[in-house]
Amino acid sequence: MLRLKYILFILLSLQTLSSAFAQQIKVSASLERDSIWLGDQIKMILVAEYPIGTSLSFPELKDSLANGVEVLSRSARDSSKIGDNLLQMRQSFVITAFDSGPHPIAPFLFAQRTGLSTDSIRSNGLWLFVKVPNVDLKKGFADIKKPYEAPITFKEVAPWILGVILLASFIFLILYAINRRRKNIPLFSMPAKPKLPPHVVALSELDKLKEEQLWQHDKVKDYYTRLTDIVRVYLEERYEVPAMEQTTQEILAEFKGDNSEIKGKLFAGLQKTLETSDLVKFAKYTPLADENHFVLVNAYTLVEETKFEPVPEPVRKPTPLVTTESGEKVPPVSNESEKQP
Hints:
alpha+beta; 3 domains; 13 strands
């Protein structure tokens, strides 16, 4: 009998404790608004507030609720702490309905587990009103409006613009290559270097010929051939005469006369160089060492005495301005103007 009393006391205590916890747990259901148009979507939110440490389970909703209300999607459950000893858990659902009229949504059951027992906590019920647009039967049903066209962005057009530019560049390169090939011009050519003065080129070539020492190594014919080519190219570039195509007599005839810059010793040296070269190349003449030396000296003298170097124009310095008493800057008055009455 005493044991039965203890069991009844324990059960009564557990029931009292469960009631106390149940009073601290609050569950609710809400809608964004109480009415929607037919087929429109609305968000339904379930909220539960309960003490920390309480085991509370949210209701597992199916794809459709009662009375034709459908669940389209659901969010993850989000919990946050409110107060010192309370937690709040929220979960939202997107619902819709395709039947007009009022749609009652039954309360939702939250399961609370205390020890070995499980209690159910009921939320409030909801009403969803589904409206249908008014249709004028005389006019009939209106056509469905076409969707709005989104404006075209640069990100969508950029690939097409880039493609057109690449295609145009490719076509231009093909036409450019065909045109260059017809004219027998290389596809890519480096810009021409500025042409050096004739005397600079001639003196550089004479220095190279002197360093090679051809006649000292029994290459007399090569020595005179190189030497006369250097002299002929210089005369052609300096005086614009076809010296490379002329004979020795024709070249000498070009520079005979008092008006020629090549006269006297210069003319004699040029004649000696060209005639000795002809003897070596065509008559198998073997000149002496002094002759080989002097023809090179004659070539150096000819270039040095007849070279043309343009004189640069003097740079005029700007005339400093004079400040008048009024503060205006004017050019100074020359002495010649001051002497005039």
